[in-house]
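Researcher: Structure prediction, please.
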Amino acid sequence: MSARTIFLGSGAFGRECLRRLSGHSRVHLVGVVTAPTGSSGRGRRGSATPIADLARELGLEPVLAPARLRAPESLAAIDALRPELAVLADYGQVVPARLLELRYGALNLHPSLLPRHRGASPIPAAILAGDDDTGVTLIRMDAGLDTGPIIAQERVTLTGRETAPDLETALEVIAAGLLERNLDSWIDGRLTVRPQPTTGVSLTRPLRREDGRLDPTRSSARLERQIRAHQPWPGSFVDTELGRVVVWDATVEADGPDAGRFDRSGLGTSDGCLALCEVQPAGGRRMSWAAYLLGRRGIVGSRVVDRPD
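Model: Predicted structure follows.
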């Protein structure tokens, strides 16, 4: 027997889950719900979500994109599909109670080892915190924010060089496998859940543009993690006397100029130097720091300026 299933997702993290669900023998995929065009954030303004793109590629219908999932017309459209199970991965809206009360409930794939890094930005948070490992947690959703009981988890060791897109791609595949391995047993009622631990809880929030600003009073290691964590959104940048510079890659050096001052290696920090490797001047292309210096020798010896957005 197959379960009438709706999938809710917006970001790239959910793509492989949707692909696996579309071919699963125990799933009758009756609809896909995603964010409306232009509202999925992270640099995707004006374009369809990765989930909408994939759903159309797979020929899945209907694809619903409500601005407010809990609006009466949105709920009516979902009710008309007569779902028995909801599967979520990186959707981004609060789920109405009626989805939690479906025959097989609502399952959520969250890209962290819950209860650590609940909320909107768990992948950047794991990198920024310098975590040794992260993973994916499959939960049965409840009314809280990523607080539901755990069905299964899978852990992955971090190398310390991942960018957020790198990690998202890896966790996307892990999430799909975790879902696939547990779905039959869940539908058959053969799985038990366990409550999340009450210790080790942390909460993340949506990233804002200003979160991309590199603060040279912090340590070099923390800034290097920020550069990897905040790709592609909100990016990492400093404002200089010659304009804004986006930093795409950097390494840590022990010795450097005063915090906030530039030398030929890069930017002075609280404990050394953030050696800049790849940068992008405002309105320009990405280039090496050495290439940037060729046309902008005045940057050496200058300081970061405070130019709020």
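Model: The chain is about 25% helix and 25% strand.
Researcher: Thanks, that helps.
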